[in-house]
Amino acid sequence: MIHIEGASRVYRRRGRKAVAAIDQVDLRVERGEFVCVRGPSGSGKSTLLLTIGAMLRPSAGRVEVAGEQVYALGARSRAAFRAEKIGFVFQLFHLLPYLDVRANIAAASGRVGGKARDAAVDELLERVGLAGRADHLPAELSAGECQRVAVARALLHRPVLLLADEPTGNLDPRSSSAVESLFGEYRAQGGTILMVSHDRTPFEGVDRTIHLAEGRVASEPGARDT
Ligand code: ADP
Ligand code: MG
Question: How far apart are the CA of 22 and the centre of ligand 1, in A?
């Protein structure tokens, strides 16, 4: 599902040292796997996820996702690829402030319209415990509630790959377990998950953990999660 070779992303700032946010990363994730990426703040986790999510072109290296060399695609095809294949939970939610909860979730899947979509949105809202918040704006929600909306939005279009940047970072234990069971269900339906986390809280269903340190993969791929 994900096959990366030698991926690096260098940030250059005038008058400052260049920072390699990710540095020669090789990574393979098979279809149906649930892989967790851990590492301290600044180790390159978000950069890696955006690179895999077809949103951030690497300075060097090869990025294949769902059988596609994503950075060989033109901007328009790459956006279409992303909309169809990938669900992304951003670290800072990226909800649209002027849309209510229902519209924020529905906005992710422009092509599936009408009753079927409304029913799917309602079902997801129920699952994340926000059925009573459908007409609230993001500013009227707590951080944990925003995070649950972001997870629902990422899953609505049934992506083949779910990329999640610290999806439980702002959640209390009860909301976290709602996210865990949504992820578990998504996987039972054949989904693949790559999730970033900076803490050591165990997350149900993770097959394998990869450690990042200063932009490099620090552990053997294939090491089992403990
Ligand atoms: P993490 O998600 O693990 O906290 P990031 O991928 O956000 O790490 O960042 C990795 C490194 O790259 C950090 O040193 C960060 O300061 C730097 N970095 C990230 N984004 C940018 C950017 N847009 N411009 C310059 N440096 C950046
Ligand atoms: Mg980050």
Answer: 9
SS3 category, 152: helix
CA of 10 relative to ligand 1 center, distance in Å: 10
Which residue type sits at 179?
A: V
Sorted by where each begins, the domain ranges of the chain are 29-57+72-219
| Ligand 1 binding pocket mutation candidate from 8, 10, 11 (most atoms within 8 A of CB) | 11
Q: Give the atom of ligand 1 at the shortest distance from the alpha carbon of 13.
A: 25
Contact 45, 37 (CB under 8 A): yes
Superfamily grouping for domain 29-57+72-219: P-loop containing nucleotide triphosphate hydrolases (3.40.50.300)
Tell me the backbone φ, ψ of residue 127, rounded to 5 degrees: -60, -35
192-197 and 161-165 strand pairing: parallel
Q: DSSP letters along 50-67, please?
A: HHHTTSS--SEEEEEETT
Q: What is the mean pLDDT of residues 212-226?
A: 69
Confidence at 108, pLDDT banded by 50, 70, 90? confident
Contact criterion met (CB below 8 Å) for 28 and 3: yes
Q: In 10 A of CB 135, how many CB atoms? A: 10
Q: What is the pLDDT of residue 222?
A: 45
**How far apart are alpha carbons 153 and 182 in whole angstroms?**
12
